[in-house]
C-alpha cells in the first residue's frame, strides 16, 4: 500500500502504528478526578474487560488509556472510524475523562453503529495484512533467488576478467539453432549448472524466459563492477587527501589516437575526469607522463598547464616510459635487431627467415575474438599458396 493511500479509513502511517506500537493498556495507580460535589472517581483496569452473561470475561482490545493525559479513548475508532458518517462522534476519538459515567459511556459506545463499522474495517484490514505478509514472503523468496543468480554470474565474470580472458568468442550455431561454441562465459555457466541447483534451475526452467545471460547483461554488469571499483578507489583517494596523476592515451583499431592532439585537449580531458570522479585538483601533488612534447613541454605542455593551476603538482617523467626508451636504445645498438625486419622474427628465427617474414603482412589479432587468430594464420597460408602458384606459372 503506497504512502498516504487509505484502506478502510486508515492510512499507511496509522497501520504502521498498529504494527510497531502496542495499545496503551497500562496497569497503574490511576489518578482520581474530583467533582464539584466533592466525590472522586478514577479509571480502572476493570473496564479493560466485559463480563458476558455466561460469566466469561472478554477483553476490550479497543479501549485504551493515556497516562500522560489521564483520558480513555477508542483506538479502533481513532484509526478506522468513518469520518464521513452522518452521525460521527469524535468524543471517543479525542478523549473521555468522565470517570463518574465511564461505565455507561463504554456500553453506549460499544453498541454504536460507528464503533461496530470501525471494528469491521479493522478486522478486514488485519485479514488483508495477513495476505500482504504472504505475498511479501513470496517476493522475498524470489528476490533471494535472483540475488543468488546474480552473485554467481558476477563471480564468473570476475574470474574470467581477472585472467584477462575473453567472455565471448565467435558464437557458432548449428542447424537446430543451438550454440556449438557458446564462449567462455556460457561454458562456465553450463559447467556450474551441473553442480549448483540454483544455476541448474535457471537453465532448465522453461517458463522463465529471463536468464540474465545475454551479452548486454554481461556488459552492464561489467560497467557496474567497474563503476563500483572506481567509486571505492575514489573514496580511498579522498581519505588519503593527496593524489597524483598518471595519464597516457592509446590507439584504437584504426591506429588513431583516442585523444585529440594538443596540450589544451589533454588538459581539458584530465580536468573533466578529475571533476567527474569528485576529486579536488588542488589536492594533486604529482604528475607522471611520457616524454612527448605535448605532455612534458616546459612552456605549454600538459604538465606546465596543470602546474599553473596547482603549483605543488610536481612533474616526473614516467619510469615505465623511461625503461622502454632505455630498452629501445639498447636494441638500436645491435645492427641485426635494428633492421626494419620484425624484431621478434629476427630474434626468434634469425635474419634469413626474418627477411621472408618481412615480405608477409599479418592480419591484426583481435584480443576478444579467438577465431581471429585462425583468420590471421589462414591469411598467411593463403598468401604462401599464391606465391607458389605464381612461381609455377612463371616456369
TrEMBL record:
Superkingdom of origin organism: Eukaryota
Protein name in the entry: Uncharacterized protein
Taxon lineage: Eukaryota, Metazoa, Ecdysozoa, Arthropoda, Hexapoda
